[in-house]
């Protein structure tokens, strides 16, 4: 049981007998001495001296001296590297304050300094959407006992988004000081998305709410906001400042519909990055309306119907010719049909309501008047989608090519029909086209002599392309699938009616479902299947730029950041019609990618990233932390003047003030490790016995007189 005398030295007691035995023995001896004193016996004091000397000897005291090695305290400096630190002179001030602080802390030999930056963490979207100083602080202290912490210094603009709810627990770290990098009395304007849907139905507008705020006070009653949808023509609207404002966004197509918004600058602006915002609405089709026009009955007619009816999102109208005009007999007209087929309604009145029209093995037989076929050709020119699957009739004078539809069909019949087995092959252009690239079972690009892993077809109409792109070829290398754009619409032509062999699994079948799905989506202008396009995908803070082209395109693209800085990205061609580049975003906002012809947008971060919600420098967010830990909040601009610029640093005791005007304190803990112990007995045995015997002899002599 040690008893401290002063730092490093103490007295240790190691009784020779257990305390349960030693205590009663000493008590009895003292009782005898007390009894002698009551009887006024001689030599009581000498007896008492002898008892005390023997008791002290049995307690066995020793002088213990520790050899101590001081342990350095640790101070952590956290540097804010978030995007808002790029505003004005904040980042240079932060680096200057860090340099001054580390230089002054070198004067303390008992202090270890650790510098950690918010950018040293795992990164991701959270790293650019929010400022996490305390995550960085906790990482730096993960291997430290709290008794070694001298405190922490946060170099930041004060906009911190991970302040602990219970700031009282931070007191064990020591004083947490804040050095603010911005200027006092800052002002800014921001544009925020209050409400916006994630999805919308194609052809129907969606409503969104925006808000323009001036901070700290309104600088003007309203502001001009420029709207631009999918990189199109800009439109300007006046929006009241400080109030919600509703807008309508038309959903023009499936996939991403991007609306850019930008508010004009105010008189006071810290950054224009939060003057811009973007809304991404994914367009979905409520119901896809398909008109299937079947001509001659054949084995594949049921395949088209089954494929389209299997999709619950497809409304199918099937117009089929069961009784051609040349089949005349005596059957009364009233017995041929219970309900007259609404030909005029379909092909004239409601034609524009269809998303896709399919002609399957159709030829002129006088059923559809030329006027209706002219309507379909005009429907395509205005933006409609047409798919023609040719049968033998396409090679005859009754071909659809000899009708007004021939103006929009991309392949002219030669009058020949090829009847021989063949494997449909993807052409070189088809390998770069999103409709046919990477079809399951296709042969590898580096093995042109290998046959695809799908079944053969046996019949093909010979055609000569008059436009468009041949993405598949068949017998004798003749065009099999041709894709073309006609004005605002699109046309696909399949020069065979035997795709049904794949659906039946003949010789292993083939990717008919995938091919027709891609074909239908390309015809309906789904952005994901554009063959010549520039797009960008965002995953966290990673931007992947992808350019699709039917011809190799080695050009680099230009990336413009939300702060209007530009950089060049080199694209890597993967031989499948795609060129790809990847870049990590360092700030939330709208990134613009351009190759000189096309422009793509990448929206990084949340709709309203906290990092851009308020970019003014403030100490209010960290004030509870300073109060709970005894730290201070200092403006770097206040300490930049004077003979010795920078904040002063002092080592302080835990029970003293930790901050003051122009200085901050770091706690001195005085921790150490013991490297050795020296144990010296205070009462040698011989000396104790001699003293005890001497005291007893003197007591007896005193009593004998």
From TrEMBL:
Entry keywords, A to Z: Membrane, Transmembrane, Transmembrane helix
Annotated TM spans: 16-37, 44-64
Positions of the UniProt region annotated as Disordered: 416-452
Protein name in the entry: Glutamine amidotransferase domain-containing protein
């Amino acid at each position: 049981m040690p008893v401290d005398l002063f730092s490093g030295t103490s007295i240790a007691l190691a009784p020779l007998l257990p305390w349960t035995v030693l205590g009663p023995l000493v008590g009895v001896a003292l009782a005898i001495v007390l009894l002698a004193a009551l009887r006024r016996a001689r030599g009581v004091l000498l007896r008492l001296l002898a008892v005390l000397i023997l008791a002290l000897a049995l307690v066995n005291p020793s002088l213990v001296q520790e050899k101590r090695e001081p342990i350095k305290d640790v101070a952590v400096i956290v540097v804010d590297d978030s995007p808002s630190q790029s505003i004005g002179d904040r980042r240079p001030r932060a680096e200057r304050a860090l340099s001054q602080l580390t230089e002054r802390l070198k004067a303390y030999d008992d202090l270890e300094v650790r510098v950690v930056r918010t950018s040293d963490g795992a990164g991701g979207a959270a790293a650019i959407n929010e400022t996490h100083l305390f995550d960085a602080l906790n990482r730096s202290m993960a291997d430290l006992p709290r008794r070694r912490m001298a405190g922490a210094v946060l170099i930041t603009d004060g906009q911190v988004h991970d302040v602990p709810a219970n700031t009282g627990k931070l007191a064990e770290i020591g004083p947490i000081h804040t050095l603010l990098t911005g200027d006092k009395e800052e002002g800014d304007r921001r544009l925020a998305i209050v409400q916006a849907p994630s999805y919308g139905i194609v052809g129907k507008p969606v409503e969104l709410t925006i808000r323009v705020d001036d901070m700290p006070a309104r600088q003007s009653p309203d502001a001009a906001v420029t709207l631009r949808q999918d990189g199109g023509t800009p439109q300007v609207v006046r929006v009241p400042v400080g109030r919600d404002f509703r807008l309508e966004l038309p959903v023009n197509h499936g996939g991403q519909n991007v609306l850019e918004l930008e508010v004009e600058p105010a008189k006071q602006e810290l950054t224009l990055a939060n003057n811009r915002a973007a809304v991404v609405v994914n367009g979905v089709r409520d119901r896809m309306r398909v008109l299937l026009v079947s001509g001659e009955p054949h084995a594949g007619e049921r395949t088209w119907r089954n494929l389209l009816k299997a999709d619950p999102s497809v409304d199918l109208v099937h117009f089929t010719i069961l009784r051609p005009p040349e089949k005349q007999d005596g059957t009364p007209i009233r017995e041929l049909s219970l309900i007259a087929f609404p030909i005029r309604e379909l092909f004239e009145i409601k034609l524009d309501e269809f998303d896709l029209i399919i002609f399957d093995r159709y030829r002129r037989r006088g059923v559809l008047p030329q006027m209706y076929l002219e309507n379909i050709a005009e429907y395509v020119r205005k933006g409609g989608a047409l798919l023609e699957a040719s049968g033998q009739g396409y090679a005859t004078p009754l071909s659809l090519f000899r009708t007004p539809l021939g103006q929009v069909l991309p392949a002219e019949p030669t009058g020949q029909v090829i009847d021989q087995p063949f494997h449909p092959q993807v052409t070189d252009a088809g390998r770069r086209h999103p409709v046919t690239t990477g079809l399951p079972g296709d042969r590898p690009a580096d093995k042109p002599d290998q046959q695809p892993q799908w079944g053969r077809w046996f019949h093909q109409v010979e055609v000569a392309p008059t436009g468009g792109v041949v993405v598949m070829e068949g017998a004798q290398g003749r065009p099999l699938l041709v894709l073309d754009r006609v004005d605002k619409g699109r046309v696909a032509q399949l020069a065979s009616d035997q795709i049904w062999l794949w659906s039946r699994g003949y010789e292993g079948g083939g990717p008919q479902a995938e091919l027709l799905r891609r074909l239908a989506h390309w015809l309906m202008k789904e952005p994901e299947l554009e063959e010549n396009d520039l797009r960008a995908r965002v995953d966290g803070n990673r931007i992947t730029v992808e350019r699709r082209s039917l011809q190799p395109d080695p050009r680099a693209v230009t990336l413009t950041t939300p702060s209007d800085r530009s950089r060049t990205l080199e694209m890597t061609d993967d031989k499948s019609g795609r060129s790809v580049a990847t870049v990590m975003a360092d700030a939330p906002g709208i990134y613009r990618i351009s190759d000189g012809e096309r422009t793509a947008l990448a929206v990084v971060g949340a709709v309203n990233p906290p990092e851009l919600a308020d970019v003014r420098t403030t100490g209010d967010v960290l004030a509870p932390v300073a109060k709970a830990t005894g730290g201070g909040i200092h403006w770097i601009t206040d300490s930049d003047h004077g003979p010795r610029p920078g904040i002063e640093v002092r080592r302080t005791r835990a029970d003293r003030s930790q901050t003051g005007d122009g200085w901050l304190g770091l706690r001195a803990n005085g921790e150490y490790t013991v490297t050795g112990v020296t144990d010296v007995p205070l009462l040698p045995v011989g000396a104790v016995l001699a003293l005890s015997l001497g005291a007893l002899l003197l007591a007896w002599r005193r009593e004998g007189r």
